Amino acid sequence: MNWKGVFPAVTTKFNEKDELDFELFDKNLQFQLEAGVHGIILGGTLGESSVLSLEEKGALVKFTVEKVAGKVPVILNIAEGATKDAIELARLAEEWGAEGLMMLPPMRYKTDHRETVEYFKAVANSTTLPIMIYNNPVDYKIEVTLAMFSELVVCENIQAVKESTRDLTNVTRMRNLFGDRYSILCGVDTIAMEQLVMGADGWVAGLVCAFPEETVAIYTLVKAGKLAEARSIYRWFIPLLELDIHPKLVQYIKLAEAQVGIGSEAVRPPRLTLIGEEREAILNIINTGIATRPTLPDYKSIVID
User: Where does the sequence pass through the membrane (predicted)?
Assistant: First the structure.
């Protein structure tokens, strides 16, 4: 697994019957691939993992693997409460054709240091799939500390971290302690360029779901050292990227996907689509961004070492 580049945490598309909408999902997927993304992550926060059945997760993985056809790796998120359930989902992910896992700490119960480390080790030791740990204590209440990462180095397939602590210094701390042992991918859209400049290897992105070209362009330009060009796009993008750090990020980003024609607003209850003043306010941000969308350089021709 090459944990570098832009990895969209794609949304799950639903139709009017609250069933998986594979046709619309594929439309968005093809836009991601055409933009040049480097991997696809299924069943994350944006993918509404907590309300997907096991059968739906399997169907999504199999469909995505078929449509991606080896162009980029397909990664499944694991967000379970019981260790045995996480181990079983890791086994199924491999069976379904996934090429990697993204893993949150245990859900619901707030594990301590020893419990968190043993949870990750148990799952890692049960599978051959490479793993990216999703470190998001702001939303999920358990921090995977540097001391924990020190213990997890013995698991060779724990290879990366989705760094969502909001602490920019963690990129440097991880590098100082572990060198290149762990790949570091930014998991918060609003600090992505900053983390990339400080040495992060990639970006697990949210607004990429609606704006894939702009997202990949920023990553490519930063890695090519073209910081002024990247900064110009990033400054335009920031009001949109801020939609990623709200509790209703799923509704906000799905509305953006609908506005650019590669998604719909449909969410699965208990989430509800936006209404009234809130919807109008978010639409104003999205439509202002669309109206002022920058002309991108030919980022696809840039070769990154």
Answer: none
